[in-house]
Amino acid sequence: MEIWINPACSKCRGALSLLDAEGADYTVRRYLDDVPTEDEIRAVLDRLGLEPWDITRTQEQAAKDLNLKDREAWPRDASGRDRWVRALAEHPKLIQRPIITADDGTAVVARTEEAVRDALAR
């Protein structure tokens, strides 16, 4: 399993602590330093069963600068999907964290202890 983290994030540190406490075998990806490609983001979205706007941190300054809350400029449908993915690749701080890719091919946004345990159970 792999976990995408920002070390400055308390939710990420909490997820790592729980993984360690459970003796999980995982790889850490500091996604701000090792930025995922558009294809990697699409793959994780497929594993999550979510759309890019579902994992976008809209309160970040980059989101405000891009005006992501403007649904006319940033449609939340198939017509806007590639643009959203590109924005996440160009501004990785916008990606919700932590994300755990589980061994069974699925993924979870692991912001809660329950979500981390869910990933461990997969």
TrEMBL record:
<dbReference type="InterPro" id="IPR036249">
    <property type="entry name" value="Thioredoxin-like_sf"/>
</dbReference>
<keyword id="KW-0560">Oxidoreductase</keyword>
<dbReference type="InterPro" id="IPR006659">
    <property type="entry name" value="Arsenate_reductase"/>
</dbReference>
<dbReference type="GO" id="GO:0008794">
    <property type="term" value="F:arsenate reductase (glutaredoxin) activity"/>
</dbReference>
<protein>
    <submittedName>
        <fullName>Arsenate reductase family protein</fullName>
    </submittedName>
</protein>
<dbReference type="InterPro" id="IPR006660">
    <property type="entry name" value="Arsenate_reductase-like"/>
</dbReference>
<dbReference type="Pfam" id="PF03960">
    <property type="entry name" value="ArsC"/>
</dbReference>
<comment type="similarity">
    <text>Belongs to the ArsC family.</text>
</comment>
